[in-house]
Write a structure and sequence with these properties.
The chain is α+β, with helices and mostly antiparallel strands and 502 residues long. Helix content is 28%, strand content 25%. Strands 1, 2, 4, 5, 8, 11, 13, 14 and 15 form a nine-stranded mixed beta sheet that branches. Helix 4 runs antiparallel to helix 5, helix 6 packs across helix 7 and helix 7 crosses helix 8.
Amino acid sequence: MIARRTLLLASAAAPMFGACATPTSGAAADLPHDPHSYAQPNQARVTHVSLDLTADFQNKVLRGTAILDIAARPGVSEIILDTSGLNIATVRHESGEARWRIGASDPILGAPLSVEITPETQQLTIAYETAPDAAALLWLAPEQTSGAHSFMFSQGQAILTRTWIPTQDSPGIRQTYDARIVVPPELKVVMSAEKLTPHGELVANGRAFRFAMRRAIPPYLIAIAIGDIAFRALGAHTGVYAEPAMLERAAYEFADTERMLQAAEALYGAYRWGRYDIMVLPPSFPYGGMENPTLTFATPTVLAGDRSLVSLIAHELAHSWSGNLVTNATWDDFWLNESFTTYIEGRIVEALFGREEADMGYVLAWADIQKALVEEPASSTVLTAHFDNPDDPVGAIVYEKGAALLRLIETEVGRVRFDAYLRSYFERHAFQPITTTAFLADIRAHLVRGDSALEQRLQLDAWTGLPGLPSNAIAPRSDALDRVDAAAAAFAGGGSLSDAPW
């Protein structure tokens, strides 16, 4: 996510109680404690969510059921879910009504939904309705769109999925999902999943659309958009959705998307999500972009007409590896999503548009870091942060300091060796969450490999655990921006821009 800038296959899910363990680690490890979730996934956890919801635009609610597949350790008699503002009607398991209770509500975390389970419990069916002001759902009147129809879209990151789905809303608790969404007959639905009914099915109260995500994803990536939506293919595996009035502009702007996908695969391995499509949302979308698997959400403000802002798409596409494939286990390790993604964004930009283009981005990002070091409290300059509310905006440290670390490592070991390491990193931890501690162990085991001189040069602990920039930080340079500075200085000294060294 660029906040700082403008049915299914059980084998695909992460190991039930070992999502932080590497495939070769032997005994499975428990998930770390997530301070932003009530869930206790090491006791009982959600593995799959099946939604059957109807969109009520008049009352601005989704209502229906969520069927949760669950798994629990022997002897566990309760599962705890995250909710916020949901109106829960009933909770049932296989043998009938379940005993449940909602705990005290916290303004940030919402309220825990505790459900009694037995050793035989494998599914819970929750009938519920969202609140009209659910934080994850934005309902737009026709006047707020570029067309004649209402529109709705979701934004679940970081901990807002609990406002529209009763599940365990923690990035480490990966879940598969399927959905049946009923909407007014003139509207269409897209989700961060495979479309099973591209044109919907006529039903008594509208049109029903079905979806399936067969790969286990963190719950913040379950996403939906409903509206007057049209589609244009961009390549064999890519395309763009938008309101009809914006479709032509969007297709022109994102014409390089298929090339971006190919460049990313050449660098870091196969794209694991099937299609990569972009949904251009109405102007009310509050972020630059959101990396929902199979379907990036993007703001129409990037439709500049000259393809000058498409680095946003490179960033969101990069999340298909860092964030979606390998995910920060908790939001305190958010840099593992965003810094890796920012680094990969630069590599995609360089592959398509040249080193000069990438270098300009690095210099601008370096300026952002310097500003952040002055303006942000010292505690926020440690990569492993401690958020009170992970939905608060984050700055250059989370995005750019870690990316600077990765570029330093690339410089120290060489691009070929570092690219090979990153490919293996994504393969080892695919569809799993990871912590900063686990990343440091991984890079030491698979890249540093006991080389004490390299360990000393990298200063990994200083980069990830101390404020500020370590002494080995490398300030980037851009020949293009140097020429601009030289021209500005010459002009300020009485020269002419016609003499600039372009």
